[in-house]
Design goal:
binds thymidine-5'-diphosphate, Ribosomal Protein S5, domain 2, 27% strand, 3 domains, globular, 457 residues, Rossmann fold, 27% helix, binds magnesium ion
């Protein structure tokens, strides 16, 4: 027999309260506590399950030395970007969460994998009809006969179908549409998401079938539903990019079976997503003209070096308060760089509007982009252009020092490979520099002032 129980749970952090409160005591968010009805299994039901053989035996402590390491056979997908991001293919029994804003291409990516992988796949969609999925499959081209489509939202039914079909991989689109019938809450609510994710996890671990779960993202960029979801799954991937641009980046936020340093880069085309193997050549502007306010950064995203263009526009403020706007870069960090330039070099940005843009709509987290950004800012303010074959890699500190960045050699090699003639880096990156071996002129600087004199004087 089941007893119905009410709880109050926070939609932001998943903390449970015994009564309703306006502010969650655990995460301090306002208005996130909602009433939920949960069904608690009585101990008798659990016992019956064991008798029926549905429950596995309780694990016993085992010496580590007695556990076989086994040869894990990863499932290799036809998509090199995804394989790399996952740490070399799909691990059996892994639960992978893929989050992203609506329309970014999550369903397209997963359908492409489902159609391309040489294995039996069950693609469960609670969002689209079979015909709509078929249309999309026709569009992305790759066709594979061993892919099954199921439009169902009831977790029990999905898992029953999966047990009969025995696929090599399952895709769930999306966790927010699933509902476990024994829970009296709407799909997408915190208790449904938690329960369904828990059931999928148990299924994946017991059957060793990997499951990909698509999850929606809230406005502030976190995966909708409790934080708990991210703890349950083995891998959290985030698909991001600007919808107005074609580029998409697949990042790993958590990975139990590989590093979180890898990223995948895709271009959204009219026939689905295409992996981009050399992003630099696409992220540099195609104009021949020399324009002021543009500087190129030799950055590293994940493990890959690439060159990317930063553009700044500094113009006299027309309205009272000068505007600051940045696309693909942290606005507060832009404020800090402007303050450093003002204090250390005496540039007056205070009366100017400043706009900053990173090419391709890509969000850059590599601090080495600082040096390119201040170069672009000075270039726009002074209206002098920077040669097209010059690039930058360095972090700027609060006192105007240019700090060393990681893997500088890799950056220099990539710049040289793409035909750049000159690269500015921190002098703290090198003890004694032998510039000849790179085939590019490496210029080392220690302070922001040095950059100004080295570049524009
Ligand atoms: P979709 O995978 O539905 O996004 P999500 O599941 O993350 O919400 O992607 C939808 C967008 O992708 C839509 O705006 C159209 C675009 N698209 C293409 O440009 N080319 C294609 O081949 C496909 C299938 C979609
Ligand atoms: Mg979708």
């Amino acid at each position: 027999m089941s007893t119905v129980k009410k709880i109050y749970a926070c939609t932001s952090c998943g903390a449970r309260q015994s009564k309703w409160v306006g502010k969650c005591p655990a995460c301090n968010e306002w208005n996130t506590i909602h009433e939920e009805i949960v069904v608690k299994e009585s101990p008798r039901e659990e016992r019956q399950k064991i008798v029926r053989g549905q429950k596995r035996e309780d694990p016993k402590p085992t010496p580590l030395a007695h556990i076989k390491s086994g040869d894990i056979q990863r499932l290799i997908t036809p998509d090199d970007e995804l394989n790399r991001v996952l740490g070399g293919g799909i691990v059996p029994g892994a639960l992978v969460l893929i989050g992203g804003q609506p329309g970014i291409g999550k369903s397209t990516l997963m359908l492409q994998i489902a159609l391309g992988v040489k294995a039996r796949v069950l693609y469960v969609s609670g969002e689209e009809s079979e015909e709509q999925i078929k249309m999309r499959a026709d569009r992305v081209g790759t066709q594979q006969s061993d892919c099954f489509i199921l439009t169902e939202t009831n977790t029990n039914k999905i898992l029953t179908h999966a047990q009969h079909l025995v696929p090599d991989m399952i895709v769930i689109d999306s966790i927010q549409t699933l509902a476990a019938p024994h829970i009296d809450a709407t799909p997408g609510s915190i208790s449904q998401v938690r329960e369904c994710a828990g059931e999928l996890q148990r299924f994946a671990k017991e059957t060793n079938i990997p499951i990909f779960i698509i999850g929606h993202i809230t406005k502030d960029g976190s995966i909708a539903g409790p934080k708990l979801l991210e703890h349950i799954v083995d891998t959290v991937l985030q698909f991001e990019g600007d919808q107005n641009y074609t580029y998409r980046i697949l990042r790993t936020l958590k990975n139990r079976f590989g590093s979180t340093d890898e990223i995948g880069i895709y271009a959204m085309t009219s026939t689905g997503l295409q992996g981009v193997s050399n992003p630099s050549e696409l992220l540099l502007s195609q104009t021949e003209e020399l324009l002021s306010g543009s500087a190129i950064c030799a950055m590293i995203e994940g493990m890959r070096p690439m060159l990317i263009e930063t553009q700044a526009l500094v113009s006299k403020a027309v309205y009272g308060t000068p505007q600051r706007s940045a696309t693909g870069f942290d606005l507060r960090r832009l404020g800090m760089l402007l303050a450093v330039l003002e204090k250390r070099c005496g540039f007056a940005f205070g009366q100017n509007d400043v706009f900053l843009n990173i090419a391709g709509g890509i969000r850059v987290e590599d601090p080495a982009i600082d040096l390119a950004i201040i170069s672009a800012l000075i270039s726009s303010l002074e209206d002098v252009s920077i040669p097209k074959d010059t690039c930058f890699a360095g972090e700027v500190g609060l006192s105007g020092e240019i700090r060393a960045v990681n893997r500088v050699e890799q950056r220099i090699h990539e710049a040289a490979r793409l035909g750049f003639k000159e690269i500015f880096v921190s002098k703290y990156n090198f003890k004694n520099l032998n510039s000849d071996k790179y085939g590019i002129r490496v210029r080392t600087i220690g302070k922001v002032e040095d950059l100004y004199y080295g570049l524009f004087k």
